[in-house]
Specification:
- This protein is α/β, with parallel strands linked by helices and 196 residues long.
- 32% of the residues lie in helices and 24% in strands.
- It has a seven-stranded mixed beta sheet.
- The N and C termini lie far apart (43 Å).
Length: 196
């Protein structure tokens, strides 16, 4: 019997990062939306889940002024992220951990003013459990920033690619239980600013 690695695990992501796979870069439009929705960090703690090569972490840390921790389950992704961080002053903190299963006391802060999740939510096998973990880490009055592809938005005839992204049911699950839900569409992506 063959088992498939969870799409939220290191067994799935490490080989992809180790072979040099690259993913969608943070663009100016996304940065402008974060500036608008999130504002300046003033040294408050931020956590980026699935940080990959770290472009979002670096933007939050060096440009918006958050004290940022990037977590990823892939050691190769984190190695790349740390080599690309050449910003002035102290850099972000990097932690190799599986956010779905790790002991979260290993994180440098008990709660975060901002938690970000860019192009990661759709890969979570158990989305309700993942969202519970995020809520447990989010400080009172904090923001959960999610950027995710919406299924069916790609202009392609390849059914495998057309189905990439979250479904309406996944989107409903993501937005349920928050007192503030603000969204902005950005080509095939949707950006969510969620507050308790």
């Amino acid at each position: 019997m063959t088992t498939t690695a969870s799409t939220a695990s290191a067994a799935y992501w490490e080989p992809l990062w180790a072979e040099g796979r690259q993913y969608r870069q943070l663009c100016e439009a996304e940065k402008q939306l974060m500036d608008q929705y999130l504002g300046p960090g003033h040294g408050r703690p931020a956590l980026d889940i699935g940080s990959g090569a770290g472009s979002l972490v670096r933007h939050l840390h060096h440009e918006l002024g958050y004290r940022t921790t990037g977590v990823d389950c892939s050691p190769s992704a984190l190695a790349l992220a740390s080599t690309l961080d050449a910003g002035p002053g102290p850099g972000p903190t990097w932690r190799c951990l599986d956010i779905t299963a790790a002991d979260l006391t290993a994180l440098p802060d008990p709660a975060y003013a901002l938690i970000t999740c860019r192009l990661v939510y759709r890969w979570m096998d158990n989305k309700p459990a993942f969202l519970d973990r995020v809520r447990g880490l989010l400080a009172l009055g904090g923001t959960f920033w999610v950027v995710t592809e919406i299924a069916g938005r790609r202009t392609t005839t390849d059914p495998a690619r057309q189905g990439l992204g979250i479904t309406p049911a996944d989107a409903e699950l993501l937005t349920t239980g928050w007192s503030v839900v603000r969204t902005t569409d950005l080509d095939v992506l949707r950006c969510y600013a969620l507050r308790p």
